[in-house]
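Design job #97: recover the sequence.
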């Protein structure tokens, strides 16, 4: 089972560089990969913790039953003091399909608690959204590592990949 070094670097950044005896480069890609996955795990865990916090806050101060609620529900309870206010406004807009039933009710005790909840929920959403950037960075690290392997193989085999300034095209050159 013999994989091309660039495929190895797509799977695990730094693996292909290591095979081409470029240990320093290999180490950087691998350490960066571990750092990204550690950051991902931290943000994922912290985001879930923050979500649990705002949901517990809503249970305590708005009488919410948190079971089987989607994200829209949590956004809505941060925007309205109670489900009746929400329903009245949506009836005015003739959006009867968006009404909440009695098993989805809430009623904030104080406006300040509703505002605090809304801020907690938004902060948790921001943390969760940052996970997408971390995943993108992981993917980019895999791609760059694979490209780096092609570069290293090109240096060893007297091949090069370059952009021609006249044609503005990508060229591959082999020297014998």
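Job complete. Output follows.
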């Amino acid at each position: 089972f013999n994989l091309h070094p660039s495929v190895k670097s797509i799977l695990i950044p730094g693996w292909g560089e290591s095979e081409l005896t470029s240990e320093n480069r290999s180490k950087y890609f691998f350490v960066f990969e571990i750092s990204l996955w550690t950051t991902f795990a931290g943000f994922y865990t912290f985001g879930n913790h923050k979500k649990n916090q705002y949901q517990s806050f809503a249970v305590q101060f708005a009488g919410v039953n948190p079971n089987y609620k989607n994200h829209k529900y949590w956004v809505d309870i941060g925007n309205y003091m109670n489900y009746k206010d929400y329903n009245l406004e949506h009836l005015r807009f003739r959006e009867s399909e968006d009404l909440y039933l009695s098993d989805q009710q809430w009623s904030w005790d104080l406006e300040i608690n509703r505002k605090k909840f809304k801020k907690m929920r938004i902060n948790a959403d921001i943390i969760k959204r940052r996970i997408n950037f971390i995943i993108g960075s992981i993917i980019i690290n895999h791609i760059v590592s694979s490209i780096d392997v092609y570069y290293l193989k090109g240096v060893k085999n007297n091949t090069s990949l370059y952009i021609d300034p006249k044609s503005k095209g990508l060229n591959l050159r082999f020297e014998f």
